[in-house]
Amino acid sequence: MEEYVVKDGKKMKLGYTTGTCAAAAAKAAAYMLLTGRRKEKIGILTPKGIGLELAIENIKIGQNAVSCAVRKDAGDDPDITNGALVQAKVMREAEHGIRIDGGKGVGRVTKKGLDQPVGAAAINSVPRKMIKENLEEVCEAAAYEGGLLVEISVPEGESLAKKTFNPRLGIEGGISIIGTSGIVEPMSEQALVDTIRVELRQRRENGAEYAFLTPGNYGSDFIRFGMELDPKWAVMTSNFIGDSLDICRELGFKGALLVGHIGKLVKIAGGMMNTHSKYGDCRLDIMAAHAGAAGLSKEKIGEMLNCATCDDGLRILKEEGLCEETLERIAERIEFIMDHRIFSEMQVGAIMFSKEYGFLAGTKASDELLKKIVAEQKEKED
């Protein structure tokens, strides 16, 4: 792949996801199976709209099955799967349709709340859609009306998974096949923080005295549909919560309100001001600690620690009647950590929500800060 982005003044090469590799390998295998012609390269269009021409490796052609592989290229991103082979074996089936499963090195989902149901191969929705659409394209071109079974495998997957949070999340036996855009963009943390600074400085220079912050798209959706406010009011912080608060303080904001999914914000209660998973995945540990302080039994604490998602942890709290008290404790701790970060030099607050349960809790100052932000925005719009 020869596409680049410029970050921090550096030219950085883009890569492609394991999902793209799986779809490309499956497409090539299906083509060879249905046409009988060997394929050394395959063209594929990613969901981001970038077309790729990828080399095919490890080709094995049989009468009723073909397998081949595409090597993952993460570009200039420090991705542990870089260079790994993603293999696809495509087999004929009598029944019409395309079935997708995982083989060696692709994990299996063992806990609820992930992209795929318990027992399924950890091949996420977008890669599954890519595989299906590309194989349908090949079937149509070859006038093939039968069915196909696709098995995705990663020979190094089991060992690579040990370097990820997959076992903790409830994915056993290998890596996940992931990707929403099909493209890997190199991450430059300083460039992202600089972008946040520029946006906050623009807001401040335009007269804003209160900053409205959210980590990402989940927060934006909740602001729009859960709070019925315009998400354009909010500045996206990504995982850089601490840096964003520092910038707000430096720029002289009087206050800052953070709206985020509990899966992000609960980490703040544990003192994590960069919420990226590479710095730790302590979500359920923190929730369980506060739940225990609120009276959750030892057995239920153990059950919570085995949950894959915060929503599943919330389910336990609701069943035990301890949800409100636990969330209040977490909110108090979030407020304490945020206030300590900015040396109590401005008013700070946070609102937590979940996709399943909606609004969960706010810190003491959250209502007041929200009113001030709404008033500021309405004044500007008037």
Tell me what the structure shows:
- The structure is a single chain.
- By secondary structure, this protein is α/β, with parallel strands linked by helices.
- It has two domains: 4-184, CbiD-like (2-Layer Sandwich); 189-381, no CATH class.
- It has 13 helices and 20 strands.
- Helix 9 (283-293) packs antiparallel against helix 10.
- It is globular and about 70 Å long.
Properties at a glance:
40% helix; 2 domains; single chain; alpha/beta
Q: Output the structural class.
A: alpha/beta
End-to-end Cα distance: 49 Å
In total, how many domains does the architecture comprise?
Answer: 2
Strand content: 15-25%
- Biggest β-sheet: strands ordered side by side in the sheet: 6-7-8-12-9
Count up the helices: 13
Oligomer: single chain
**Shape, per Cα inertia axes:** globular
Instruction: Calculate Rg over CA atoms.
Output: 24 Å
Low-confidence stretches: none
Characterize the largest beta sheet: strand count, sense, and whether it forms a barrel: 5 strands, mixed
Number of strands: 20
Itemize the secondary structure elements and their pairings.
Blueprint: E1 4-7, E2 10-13, E3 15-16, H1 18-35, E4 41-45, E5 51-55, E6 57-61, E7 65-71, E8 85-93, E9 97-102, E10 105-106, E11 108-109, H2 125-141, E12 147-153, H3 157-161, H4 166-169, E13 171-172, E14 174-175, E15 183-184, H5 189-205, E16 210-214, H6 217-226, E17 235-236, H7 241-251, E18 255-261, H8 262-268, H9 283-293, H10 298-305, H11 310-319, H12 323-341, E19 347-354, E20 358-362, H13 366-381
Parallel strand pairs: 9-12, 10-14, 16-17, 16-18, 18-19
Antiparallel strand pairs: 1-2, 3-15, 4-5, 6-7, 7-8, 8-12, 11-13, 19-20
